[in-house]
Amino acid sequence: MRWHGRVRAHAAKKRAALLLLSTAASLGSAAKPRCRLFVESRIAQGARVQLSDAQQHYLLSVMRVRDREPVLLFDGISGEWLATVDHTGRRTCASTPLEQTRPQDGPTLAVSLHFALLKPKRLALLVEKATELGVHALQPLVTARTVVREVSLDKLRATAVEAAEQCGRLSVPLVLPPLTGVEACLHSARGAVGSHVFACDERPECTIRLDDALAAAAASGPLRAAAFVVGPEGGFAPDEFALLRGGAQLVSLGPNVLRSETAALSALSIMHMRM
């Protein structure tokens, strides 16, 4: 009886595997999935992924995804996977990964952005576009002239997740708790081995263009980590700028005075062309 039980169990597993392969093949020839989701749990072929309440609402009530409709999943570790949406109730669903569509790609260059806190709308724009431009870590700062001094990290992370889902990247940037002061900022920015730290400012002392500074840094060896520091709307205070002058390379982003979010995204755009 035990032998027959093992045979039946093996046959059931084989049928399930064949069903997964058949479903994956049929989905592979179908239209591109309409939805792409970041999930917190590790993805494995055939292992059902439990979706958050917000994701279930989005799929069922907003996108009106049908049962067994294909979606794309990624977890920041296992690459991107083709999966199906499995309706488990009128307003609940889960997802079953079928096959990997893209392997996880490790960043060739870890880029961190250290930026003074902004007002909510402009901060959300900064996080969204920085995610699209491939930033590895987002480090908010509180400086002497920072007006906004509190921030919801949950909201920032939600914005980063949504941007990662939309732009097709396979990871979500780290959203770190705010640091206070330029000294703490520099210590954090220099954390990665071989990291190059660039402070972007419009002062006359900043005569080297960022693209030239990056070219010079790359000429001495492969760039593995780079950090960009951008101040608040009122700029860095004199004592803060003195610390930056001693701990980072001062660079220019052009002749115009840029708003903080424009300066940050300009720096990331220049870096993005080299990634």
TrEMBL record:
Localization annotation: Cytoplasm
InterPro entries per UniProt: Alpha/beta_knot_MTases, PUA-like_sf, RsmE, RsmE_MTase_dom, RsmE_PUA-like, tRNA_m1G_MTases_N
Secretion signal span: 1-30
Cellular-component GO terms for this entry: cytoplasm
Entry EC no(s): 2.1.1.193
Positions of the Ribosomal RNA small subunit methyltransferase E methyltransferase domain: 109-271
GO biological process terms, semicolon-separated: rRNA base methylation
Keywords, in A-Z order: Cytoplasm, Methyltransferase, rRNA processing, S-adenosyl-L-methionine, Signal, Transferase
Keyword Magnesium assigned: no
Domain Ribosomal RNA small subunit methyltransferase E PUA-like intervals: 51-93
Function description: Specifically methylates the N3 position of the uracil ring of uridine 1498 (m3U1498) in 16S rRNA. Acts on the fully assembled 30S ribosomal subunit.
UniProt cross-references to PANTHER family, sorted A to Z: 16S RRNA (URACIL(1498)-N(3))-METHYLTRANSFERASE, RIBOSOMAL RNA SMALL SUBUNIT METHYLTRANSFERASE E
This protein's name: 16S rRNA (uracil(1498)-N(3))-methyltransferase
